[in-house]
Amino acid sequence: MAGIVVVFDFDKTIIDLDSDNWVVDELGATDLFNQLLPTMPWNSVMDKMMKELHAQGKTIADIEEVLKRAPIIPRVVPAIKEAHALGCDLRVVSDANIFYIETILKHLGIMDCFSEINSNPGYIDEEGKLRIQPYHDFHTSSHGCSLCPPNMCKGLIIERIQASLATEGKKRMIYLGDGAGDFCPSLKLKKEDFVMPRKDFPVWKLINENRELVKAEIHGWKDGEEYEHILLQIIKTITMEENQLLSVDCKFQTIPIEALPKAVPVPY
């Protein structure tokens, strides 16, 4: 259904953990990470960690191998494939980074299901080390949102997507997430949209404490089976509603005046 856009967070919404912590822990750098974390923003810590891991002899191949072992939430990959097959426009909005996300999505065979990935830039520099940069360069200016971390406001990304959808004729959005950073975009959704927060995770708590601020219809999920069932049910319900509206429009289609039969004079 061309009118439905599904936006996924990545960490703990597609994979079942935080990708930054997973890479750091699996490559044996947890202690250094914990030392650096109080000294700078998370995004900056990860860039520093990539430099340190490179200095220790860790390669891009080592990082890729770790990423490919990241546990996935059960039933999420089939759900994504089915949503794509049903014609939905799938996108990622994540505070991880492009390199991690693309590596994992390619490994899972679902990279082509997504039309857009919005995340922190991650690239390999000329020395062969992974660099991780902020989505929003907070060193030069602030994005101005007090709800979000300095490097990324997901709400601003959702607003940009909404503006582009208005020109493409797409109307309904489904947003899935788990973290505190997913609260701001949830507030940007409209009453005809849907938000799927992961139950008992930070965004679930924030939404439940501020339900009057959320205009979208709320559907929580606790595991992959519930995630798959709810997502596909919402998509099918929207599709059915739009098909019914189309049927009504066709039934009451206006006939141009020139197409009406000409009046025949009635003899007296």
Would you mind describing this structure in some detail?
It comes from Nicotiana tabacum (Common tobacco). One of its GO terms (molecular function) is phosphatase activity. The active site is at residues 9, 11. Mg(2+) binds at residues 9, 11, 178. This protein has 268 residues and is α/β, with parallel strands linked by helices. β2 (89-97), α6 and β3 (114-120) form a beta-alpha-beta unit. It contains 10 helices and 8 strands. The strands form 2 sheets. A 6-stranded parallel beta sheet has the order 3-2-1-6-7-8, sandwiched between helices. Strands 4-5 form a two-stranded antiparallel ribbon.
Tally of DSSP helical segments: 10
Quantity of strands, as a count: 8
How many angstroms does the end-to-end distance come to? 58 Å
Number of domains: 1
Largest β sheet strand count, sense and barrel closure: 6 strands, parallel
Uncertain regions: pLDDT < 50 for 5+ in a row? none
Q: What's the CATH first level?
A: Alpha Beta
Please, what is the average pLDDT? 91
Q: What shape does the CA trace take?
A: globular
List the helices and strands in order.
Answer: EHHHHHEHEEEHEHEHEH
CATH fold naming: Rossmann fold
Radius of gyration (Å): 23 Å
- The CATH architecture name reads 3-Layer(aba) Sandwich
Name the CATH homologous superfamily: HAD superfamily/HAD-like
What is the strand content?
5-15%
**Structural class, from secondary structure content?**
alpha/beta
Binding site for substrate: 20, 95
Binding site for Mg(2+): 9, 11, 178
GO molecular function, one term: phosphatase activity
Organism: Nicotiana tabacum (Common tobacco)
